[in-house]
């Protein structure tokens, strides 16, 4: 199932809870458009498929809504923690907005470390998660069948695409979040289980094309450029935007890359331009021939050449006529 179709769903931690005569359901729901919500593993036609799939090419914003629904009976105490990280501490999403109470008598507190919670809102970059706690009992007749949400906490997340790709986490099934919930006076329960798995996909993902600039010895002489695109699309690194004029160097046209034009692939491709260093005239070298008293005994020889080139001198055999 794709997270982003016409509309989409994700309900995490959903299930009925029975406690002291009450029946309730708690879950975290996610929607691609902020309207329709479905149980995890379902597409918008409600066909049961697992895991829920997040398409990184389409899904830039994920609308989240944590809910508690009490069907009947009474709940006096309830709270739940949500951490935007998996069990190993990795965060695959970024907060785009603060979790806010949109329905019910509840209190929301925030955490930057998953341990300490505060009323103060940290920056969204520092926000790790939140805790929601019931402030007022929820009471229904024992024979009621309430279907309306009693509590709602809403916020938005965005997949951290760069982090996902750099950690090679495409097409892998895993649980992206962690947290616990407490009902009445019972011990905490894990909010997320193996049935709450998710996977990221990027159907046309390409690592792009890197355009490199080297000298005749293969040493890099300019920062590389990157061309981005989707797998199968055409790239063109033969234009002046990528075929650079570099000060002090001349492009070696006999070594032009054969793959300057091509199609993006999933793997990173490299296009390499080779440059020859331009000759720079060096100062002359004067070769002198003198006796032990530094008197000239032969004409000087002037050697000329370019910086970096080797030069050689010859000794002379001189005949001295007395």
TrEMBL record:
Keywords, sorted A to Z: Repeat, Signal
Signal peptide span: 1-19
Domain MucBP: 209-275, 284-316
Superkingdom of origin organism: Bacteria
Pfam family, one: MucBP
InterPro entries for this protein: MucBP_dom (IPR009459)
Annotated protein name in UniProt: MucBP domain-containing protein
